[in-house]
């Protein structure tokens, strides 16, 4: 003790002397007195204590140190105990906190579970809320529907009770009178068909209480067409004409069907027939250069303006004499595409002129309208070549159809004569505008179109584009693509029992979906004439063909046109989309055949899923929808539909397709090249139809003239390096650029492609010639031909556009990826169309392109200025682009009211500048357009002012009885209808009707429009009987108008086909030539040219008698057709004689149950009945019944119709006992085959009611009549009324209305 060794260092273990556990030594801050420290320090320093030292001093130090040590130990012990206590306390607190933490964690977990539960309950509550709201909305809709149905049911039953009570009173009042006299059947107005009315009469007088054909056997027009569509025997035809071939089921009332039939058998119809461009091919010499230059400078622009005002393009095709020899291929191709040809000749001509003249005027003299301008001078001597050429032309012109212009005056006068002749040819022969004033701004194209479409405005260019898209697709051969298996599967899917969802045709880009659908449409139209096929081909995503509102409106209009009227269709975009399913359901209920709707590339439609929601709703039972999509862009919801996927081409199909392309240019691949191609075409991107076709075109179109094999090998190797269609297109573009001879041509090619890319719907050839003055037509023709051959560009509706979207993308990547955007090209187009706008030339092209281009450039100020050009907005609105016009205003940021205010201000400013009559007429048209636009927007209050102003201007500037005044009255009446002021509306409609009848006559399309509007007004007032009468009259007028005028496109097409056939009849006598003459006569009959029809049908009969003999069945056909023509001309004696001769021939040559025999029997019986020769007609009807029973079986509806016809004859012969079982048997057949609620059942019930009444069984008569009325009232009713179907096949009732009833011959 007392030594330094007793101290411990920090960290050493100290053993507790009291049995405590060892602890860790710590530095304890102990305060040591200085003295003790000193003593301690001194004790350490000393050495060994010396002997004799003081014991006291040493002991005291040790004692003092021991006390100090003891004190320190006690203090340490106390400190240690206190710290242990603190540690224990802290451990307890830690344990307590751990427990608290665990408790809080448990509570947190419980709260989280509660939160999740509450969240799920909330979501469930929201879902339940939405479902409840949907059920409530459905319940309200069903409730409203039930209310409407109950209201209709109640009104119907009340009317039925009133009719029955009235009939009962009439029956009781006349019962005694009838019982005292004989009762027999009287035929007041014999029908044109062999279905006739039967009416009870008293002693030859018509019975007043059954007037109006109430108990007649003739069904309504709509129900008759329905029956004929569903059950169509081989002997049935639309008209009285008997022709084998494309016109066997074509009516003069249905031009669309006539054109479709012609295209089905004539797929080679030249493009000039259905092109939207009037192409004038001009052949001139150096001697007539002055006339040509004057015509091009002064008069060509006038013809172009006339055509553009009518919605067409005009293009002069002229190869200069010095350049013509180097463009021989292009000249021949342009001759084939041209609409008309002009030859300017004096005394000499080069070899190229002679070649063109022989191609146009000699080899194909009837292929085009031709004009020959001969410049004569004194002492003029023709060269031998020119003289021989004129002799050939004169010899070829057998029918004297070439328009010859002889002139000996100045070049200016000659140019004017050429212009006058061309204007006449274009109007009359190309556009079918004979007798119309195309210069009038108040008539012409827009008004004619408005008359045809009633109050619904739509764009004929859209329809033309669809026709051309379909025709171009049909022109491609698909024999090497293996489409037959897909066509069979399409037929199977369409034939599946309803309900069926839409059918999805999917495939990669370029797999041939459009080609497949086009070929299938063509087959459907041939094989199923009762099927109504509606199609739409969607083009570029930025074009109008992809606008959903325009697509749905077009399909709706085509559906409604099927029933001869399109009144009642809304113009508001949202309502068009909403109402289409309802129109589809209502119209499909009236159509007994199938309706197929085909939309190609539906995934390219803007917001397809949102705007095509009707596709996911259940479709009507007889409606099928087929849509095609790219497999990559197909919406997910549509992938659940039945799908037909186009597989990649097999190696054999690839080889066949390439071989076919190579054979066309006399090129053959080696075995090694074929193996290379086969190895390459194994992926999905390199074995689709477009890729393979393009590859074959590239390796065959760029071959040098010597056909070098090395070049072919090099081209093939370059193509095989491209792994997709876009890269292959880019290769084609580079190869074409390198093939051009100069930088100028390369620049022009690039500019053309980029302008097409930057445009809205494309660019026309005439616009390109305006944009590039240095570009001559020969070079343009060559460039466009090569681009077309490489599947890059095509022409639709007169506009150049890309054939495929991959070509568009390739042009973008090849020419615009280097930093230059399409904005500069859009600016170039904007400047061009602004220039036209500044010249007061607002064509449909300006209205289509300029606003869209400004919108793409995000130039809102200029866009608003273009829209405030009243003629631009008028053009857009009158062509039905209502939704597009609204979208532009919404983009500018204007609502409906501010937009209306802007238009009013613009009109006021324009009105201040109007001085003459022409400008006031334009102003009235603008006011009318604005009023209609505001009415369609729902701003009826603001629409009245411009419509009234339009009426005031027309009454003041023109005449109170001018036809345009009727248009203003018609539009004002529409506003009053929306206000439910029916009395005012009726007054205005009647005034408009009176003006139209006085101006145009009682059978004009304008009169039909007013009648339809009045019928719709009466229907709103529940005046159903008056409405039905007006509708029937309107339908008859529209049918007659269509027969006389025809569709512009169909009229031109049928006329051209007639000319082609006429050329074929100029050879030697033969059976084929006689058949062509017969078909030509039918064509002229369809065009209502009865004199020409008689000439060709007579020639056909005479030739057949010479070649085949007088007893050949073909002679019977000619006799039958001539008899029908004489019936049309009311020459009944000749008609009867020819029918009898035809019947005699067919009885000898044909079997007793042959359909052609039944055909002649039917029409001869109809003629006998017309002439009152009932005794002769009866056995023919009996024989016709026997033939039908053998042909169709005893339970076919056609047999029932024959039974009714025979029963009518028996009633007319007063053989009521024999007629009754025939009616009962016919009723049984109709009920079993068509259903108990079919209109034909109702018509037969009415006839049975007549006979039951005649027998005195009044209770049964009333019961039968009641049931007949129930069936009639249950028929679906449309705004357009009971109208015949456009594509129905006539049965026993001919759709070509025959002459009126002939008075019965007095005996």
UniProtKB/TrEMBL annotation:
Residues 273-432 form the Nephrocystin-3 alpha-beta domain. Residues 1-20, 1279-1307 are annotated as: Disordered. The keyword Magnesium does not apply. TPR repeats lie at residues 966-999, 1116-1149, 1200-1233, 1242-1275. Pfam families: NPHP3, NPHP3_hel, NPHP3_N, TPR_10, TPR_12, TPR_NPHP3. The keyword Coiled coil applies. SUPFAM superfamilies: P-loop containing nucleoside triphosphate hydrolases, TPR-like. One of its GO terms (biological process) is visual perception. It comes from the Eukaryota. Residues 653-815 form the Nephrocystin 3 helical domain. Residues 500-619 form the Nephrocystin 3-like N-terminal domain. Keywords: Cell projection, Cilium, Coiled coil, Repeat, TPR repeat, Wnt signaling pathway. Residues 826-1064 form the Nephrocystin-3 TPR-repeats region domain. Residues 1285-1295 have a biased composition (Low complexity). It is found in: Cell projection, Cilium. One of its GO terms (cellular component) is ciliary inversin compartment. Residues 87-128, 154-181 form a coiled coil. Its main location: other. This is Nephrocystin-3.
